[in-house]
Write a structure and sequence with these properties.
Keywords: Cytoplasm, GTP-binding, Nucleotide-binding. It is found in: Cytoplasm. This is Ribosome biogenesis GTPase A. Required for a late step of 50S ribosomal subunit assembly. Has GTPase activity. By secondary structure, this protein is of the alpha/beta class. It folds into two domains: 3-159, P-loop containing nucleotide triphosphate hydrolases (Rossmann fold); 167-252, Conserved Hypothetical Protein Ylqf, Chain: A, domain 2. Helices cover 40% and strands 12% of the residues. It is built from ten helices and six strands. Helix 6 (167-176) crosses helix 7, helix 7 (186-200) packs across helix 8 (202-209) and helix 7 crosses helix 10 (240-252). The longest helix is centred in the C-terminal third of the chain and has 15 residues, at 186-200. The radius of gyration is 20 Å and the shape is elongated. The two termini are 36 Å apart.
C-alpha cells in the first residue's frame, strides 16, 4: 500500500485529471480514502462502474453527492462500453487546463482498487488490450503510459488495496466479489448478504427464488436457497458453504436484481 500511494502521490503532480474507478454498488467501500489527501485541487472524475448491477435510484443519489463536491465530476458508465467511455474521454479533455492547446495532450491518471474495473476501463479507452483483466489483481511494476487521441493515459504501478478497517465495508467488498474468496469464508459473507437483502430488497429475493414469504432468518434463507439450487450432501443435508457460494455468485452476476450495498448518507447501508 505504501509504495502504491507513493507512486500515485508522485504521478498526481504530473497529470491534469485523475479518474478514480469505483464499484457503483458500493462507491464508498470500493474507494481508498487516502487518495483524497493526495488530490489537493486536481480535477477528479469518479467513475461508477457496473451501474447495470446497482440500484439506479441509489446510484443517482451517489452521483448527486459526488457532483456537489468541489472539483469532482461523477459518471455512471460501464467500463466495457466504448460509446460511454468516449464520453468520459471528452469530459477529461474539458476538465483539463490544457484543453484545446495544440501539442499539449491531456494527461490522465487512472486509479482504483482491484476488481472494480480499472483494467477494463483502460483497455476500452485505449481500444485494445493493454492491462490484464481478471478476478485476481495484476500487479503493475512500472508506470504505463498510453498515448491516445489528445490524451496521455497513465496506469499507476503497484496495487492500491481497499481500506479494511471497517468490518461492514469489508463484508460489502466480499459480497460484491471485490476481495478474494480467501479473505472471508463464503458462509459468513453469505449470511451478511442474506440479512441485508432480506431487509432492503425482500421482493427481489421472493421473485428470484419464487417464494411467497421469506425465511425467518438469514441462515434459514441460505438453507432454503441451497435446497432450491441442489447444494446437498449425504443424507440430504444442506452444504452451507456451497449454498452460500451459489447465492453470492447469483448476487454478483445480477441474477437477483439491481442491488446497492450502501447509500451516500454517512456512507451507511441503505435503510428502508
Amino acid at each position: 500500500m505504501g509504495k502504491a500511494l507513493e507512486s500515485i502521490a508522485d504521478l498526481i503532480k504530473k497529470v491534469d485529471v485523475v479518474i478514480e474507478v469505483l464499484d457503483a454498488r458500493l462507491p464508498s467501500s470500493s474507494s481508498n480514502h487516502q487518495l483524497q489527501a493526495l488530490r489537493r485541487t486536481k480535477p477528479w472524475v469518479k467513475v461508477l462502474n457496473k451501474p447495470d448491477l446497482a440500484d439506479p435510484a441509489v446510484t443517482a443519489a451517489w452521483l448527486k453527492q459526488f457532483k456537489s463536491e468541489t472539483g469532482v465530476s461523477a459518471v455512471a458508465i460501464s467500463a466495457k462500453k466504448q460509446l460511454e467511455v468516449k464520453k468520459l474521454i471528452k469530459l477529461c479533455k474539458e476538465l483539463s487546463p490544457r484543453n484545446g492547446r495544440l501539442g499539449f495532450p491531456t494527461r490522465v491518471m487512472v486509479v482504483g482498487i482491484p476488481n472494480v474495473g480499472k483494467s477494463t476501463l483502460i483497455n476500452t479507452m485505449a481500444g485494445r488490450s493493454l492491462a490484464k483483466v481478471g478476478d485476481k489483481p495484476a500487479i503493475t511494476t512500472v508506470n504505463q503510459r498510453i498515448e491516445l487521441d489528445g490524451i496521455v493515459l497513465s496506469d499507476t504501478p503497484g496495487v492500491l488495496w481497499p481500506e479494511m478497517d471497517d468490518q461492514e465495508g469489508a463484508y460489502r467488498l466480499a459480497a460484491s466479489g471485490a476481495i478474494g474468496a480467501n479473505a472471508l469464508d463464503y458462509h459468513t459473507v453469505g449470511l451478511f448478504a442474506a440479512e441485508y437483502l432480506m431487509r432492503r430488497y425482500p421482493e427481489l429475493l421472493k421473485s428470484r427464488y419464487k417464494v411467497a414469504e421469506l425465511s425467518e432468518s438469514p441462515s434459514a434463507l441460505i438453507e432454503e436457497i441451497g435446497r432450491s439450487l441442489g447444494c446437498l450432501i449425504a443424507g440430504g443435508e444442506i452444504d452451507l458453504n456451497r449454498a452460500s457460494e451459489a447465492f453470492l455468485r447469483e448476487l454478483r452476476a445480477g441474477k437477483i436484481g439491481r442491488i446497492s450495498f450502501e447509500e451516500p448518507s454517512l456512507s451507511q447501508e441503505v435503510d428502508s
